[in-house]
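Troubleshooting log. The previous structure file for this entry was overwritten by mistake, so regenerating from the original sequence record. Sequence copied from the archived sheet and checked twice against the printout by T.R.
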Amino acid sequence: MRNFETPGRSLAVGRDGMAATSHPTATLTAVEILKAGGNAVDAAVAACAVQCVVEAGSTGVGGDCFALVAPGGSADVIAYNGSGRTPAGLTLARLRDAGGSAIDRRSPHAVTVPGAVEAWARLVAGHGRLPLREILAPAVALARNGYPVTPRVAFDIGHQRELLLQDPMARTTFLADGAVPKVGSLQHQPRLADTLEAIGRDGPDAFYRGPVAEDMVACLQGHGGCHTMADFAAAQGEYVTPIRTSYRGRTVYECPPNGQGVIALMILNILKRFTPGSDPLGADTLHIEIEATRLAYAARDAFVADQAVAEVPVDHLLSDALADDLAARIDLTRALPRQAVEEAVEHTDTVYIAVVDKDRTAVSFINSLFTPYGSGLMAPRSGVLFHNRGQSFSLVDGHPNAIGPGKRPMHTIIPGMVAENGRVCLTFGVMGGHYQAMGHAHLLSKLFDHGLDLQAAIELPRLFPLPGTGEVEAERAIRETVGPELERRGFTIQTPRGPIGGAQAIMVDWEQGTLLGGSDHRKDGCALGF
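Regenerated output below.
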């Protein structure tokens, strides 16, 4: 039971439908779509399109999308991979010939062909009820008529001001005469409104062919990219088979690679080999979570890639043998040396949206630009802000995730679902770039190992071991309580660069016929049920 004398939020409670997003306008839009006769898929896409306008630093039509859908709450979960591919003319040799030793954030080579719009259209056509025009109408209206800047959006703009200043369109769209806009000030995106309206009217062809595509291609080529109209015309996501593991008597679903969902499952496989302690934030509990994450992320950096062009050993990564081996390496008296972590796995800012409707169709939906405001490159006539997902590629010859033509990078964005007794009981997601796989495991552990409710689990302070380093970012409450003990064990604890992640989740209580929702205080959003 929540302590009503302390700061925090109550669980959202509903019966006929619920949505949870990181922006209040998006949550309200999803609820309105449900009340207008749309289903959870329609509501998720409508909310996402709104966030592409009002929370443009986190997501956009110039980004990618992954989704899990459970029709009627069935455990026969459907997965969609809406991540885009590199241009056909982009090769590692070409980058090296141009003198590139790394992919810069503002480089056009960081921009794969955006997959979000195609994913929206396919999901709505296959599983929605309303026309795309009606679903996108709220986003069109906000982009054209204006929307107020919320506190977290202003915070993110402040941290990305130098990036936004470098692009003329981004500067005039998101900054106020070069300054960070005040909370409550109005922004407009009329060019994006026209683009969204065209997509609603003509479908994804309005984005991947014709004037909008011509504008995007010209923009990227003008910065030195090798994108072509043919690359955009060929854009297509795909339905894929979810991967899964069991955790405390439940089944956890994730999208398969090129996403890092397999790493969330790996962490859970390690955690379930330990008996949960009594304190969800105890030193031993956090020690195990840190080490499980370090070990699993080493596997991510070594193996996770586009399965269409590289072999990813998913069965091995999810095997009991590997989980047994990795769990046995964890020593609660001291941190594992960095080299031991890297050798252990050898093999012989995003928006998240949760929606459940009256028929109990559940949607776990995530759409991203990768880092806040992506590449900072904005197409001048269409208002499309491009992601920088291509920075996740490796530039090492022979690496499974090495950059190459027509290839999808390793993705950090991952939607999640949990089923119990043959029905989906939880749709959830955790934002925060690389943090997401750990965030999934952390949230589920707090729910199922420690019995916390959704909102309480989301509000707990967080930490995150930075991949490839020996450093652990920890929010203040952890630094001030168990931080010294973790330091004594050999971990390097440091202050995070900003709030660690964000989360939304909806739990289905099949017995009572109700819905329970939670939303992260680290973002502006909320969960609403009716």
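The two ends are 22 Å apart (CA to CA). Archived copy saved in two places this time.
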